[in-house]
Amino acid sequence: MPAAERAGAPEVPLHAPVVGLDAEVGYRGPTACRVAGITYRQLDYWARTGLVEPSVRSAAGSGSQRLYSFRDVLVLKVVKRLLDTGVSLQQIRTAVMHLRERGVEDLARITLMSDGASVYECTSPDEVIDLVQGGQGVFGIAVGRVWRELEGTLASFPSERPADHRAPEVPLETVDELSNRRRAREAG
Predict the structure, then answer these.
(1) Fewest CB atoms less than 10 Å from the CB: which of 78, 104, 129, 175?
(2) Which tens digit of pLDDT belongs to each residue from 155-187?
(3) For 166-171, which contacts have Cβ atoms below 8 Å and span 24 or more sequence positions?
(4) Rama region for 165: left / alpha / beta (φ>0; ψ in -120 to 50; rest)
(5) What is the structure's pLDDT at 39?
(6) Residue 10: DSSP 8-state
(7) Is 13 exposed, middle or buried (0-12, 13-18, 19+ CB in 10 A)?
């Protein structure tokens, strides 16, 4: 992903911890889907192909539950927004690889700009203006704004730690479409 020049961006350690963000807390697939606005089929495909893998706990055989961290859900939501604006999956993969290299605190300061073909990283208002004036930026995603939306939304959903053996109450309508079909077929 081409990176715009960092004009006056404050230096932030790449892996600085964010106060109040517990890396051991995760969200199950149905919650990640609902919050990111994607289908379970997309989530499963992206996990299997390595686009966005769960960092708290990956699936380990039949019946195991993936757990996605706050950062994972943030990246899922950004991927969904990029897809909605017509960016190719190949360009999104490049952007996600770049985002993985960044620390969580750094993500909140990034604006992703795209011309529909390439994705550019901007870390200051000057970089956004330079990119737009150069004719490259058509739309932008302020990751910090998505972050704040996500914090508020995820607060109302159940979370768990990898060692938790309890199953949080998840309404049936949040279970993926394939599971609903399977249950309906078994019942009828």
Answers:
(1) 129
(2) 888 888 877 544 444 454 445 566 666 667 777
(3) 168/28, 170/28, 170/30, 170/31
(4) alpha
(5) 95
(6) P
(7) exposed
For residue 160, list its beta bridge partners: 26
What six digits make up the tokens of 155? 């607060």
Q: In this structure, how many other beta carbons lie within 10 angstroms of the beta carbon of residue 88?
A: 14
Nearest CA to 96 out of 139, 56, 55, 156 is that of 55
State how far the Cα of 46 lies from the Cα of 67, in Å rounded to an integer. 14
Question: How many angstroms separate the CA atoms of 178 and 175, rounded?
Answer: 8
Q: Is 185 exposed, middle or buried (0-12, 13-18, 19+ CB in 10 A)?
A: exposed
Nearest partner of 88 among 117, 115, 45, judged by Cα:
117
Residue 57 and residue 65 in contact, taking contact as beta carbons nearer than 8 Å:
yes
Cα distances (angstroms) measured from residue 147 to each of 15, 105, 140, 141:
17, 10, 15, 11
Three-class SS of residue 144?
Answer: helix
| pLDDT single digits (tens) 29-59 | 999 999 999 999 999 999 999 999 998 888 7
